[in-house]
Amino acid sequence: MTASDPPLSRDPPLPDGASLPGSAPGLSAEALSLFRSGRAVLRACSFTLGAETPVAVLGANGAGKTSLLRVLLGLERPASGTVRLGGRALTELSRPMRARAMAYVPQYREKPPGFTVFQIVAQGRFPHGGLYRALSPRDRDEVEAALDIMTLSALRDRPCNTLSGGEYQRVLLARAVAQKTDILVLDEPLAALDYGHQRRFMALLSALAREGRLVIMTIHQPDLAFRHARRILLMQDGRLVADGPPERVLDSATLGAFWGVPLRHHDIGRDRFYTDPEEIR
Ligand SMILES: Nc1ncnc2c1ncn2[C@@H]1O[C@H](COP(=O)(O)OP(=O)(O)OP(=O)(O)O)[C@@H](O)[C@H]1O
């Protein structure tokens, strides 16, 4: 931050002891429930996110994964229960303060007309200085670094609505990286990425996690979750039905029963692969 930048926050600091061993404030869910159209989509979900990060949330389509992330971010209010960030109820924190703590990459996104790649990535700096302030030299450095990390420098002046799905996904990931938050909340971040970008982005997330950042993401592929996550939350019909290390939650007995399909897992080095034991080749 330069001397000319406005102060980052008028909010009081988070209380001592409310941070992770790195720099990230802890994030906890206490008995979260949410209803949509009269139907329960989150049912008494409780957990505390701490040093075991990245965290991967797995579950069938419609299990409530996106709903859980949205409630964690404060984008939706739960019918009951509390989200705490750094020990304080999310409802006590201003929107800019939440945006300085947590970056979000949503699952479905329309490509907005009228914005270049650079402009969208620069939106990640708004929580640090406001919508109407010119970018500071520090902001520009963060945007350039994020463009570089997501190999977007050559596309910087392209209108976003001319990008492919995977290119635009990288723009949104770059915006979250430029936001420089202690917590990253990612809804299926790998879905549209090619293999090379998947590998590079997951390596980046692992490096951020090692620095003490908290990463929570939804993911559908158990092999990718096994390789990259240190903790797995398994959701079924709005409930958390398993919470633990990948070695335990992502074993073939648990997952086979969960998905209702025959499954065998095979460990090779640090990786775990899944096959269908009944498949005839
Ligand atoms: N606007 C809405 N109105 C009514 N029901 C909704 C609405 N949005 C989501 N739902 C329902 O809430 C439930 C949870 O949806 P959610 O998007 O959280 O699931 P998900 O686990 O993220 O699924 P997916 O893996 O398909 O992304 C689903 O049954 C869905 O149909």
UniProtKB/TrEMBL annotation:
Residues 27-262 form the ABC transporter domain. Pfam families: ABC_tran (PF00005). SMART domains: AAA. InterPro entries: AAA+_ATPase, ABC_transporter-like_ATP-bd, P-loop_NTPase. Residues 1-22 are annotated as: Disordered. GO terms for molecular function: ATP binding; ATP hydrolysis activity. Keywords: ATP-binding, Nucleotide-binding, Translocase, Transport. Belongs to the ABC transporter superfamily. Part of the ABC transporter complex HmuTUV involved in hemin import. Responsible for energy coupling to the transport system. This is Iron(III) ABC transporter ATP-binding protein. It comes from Swaminathania salitolerans.
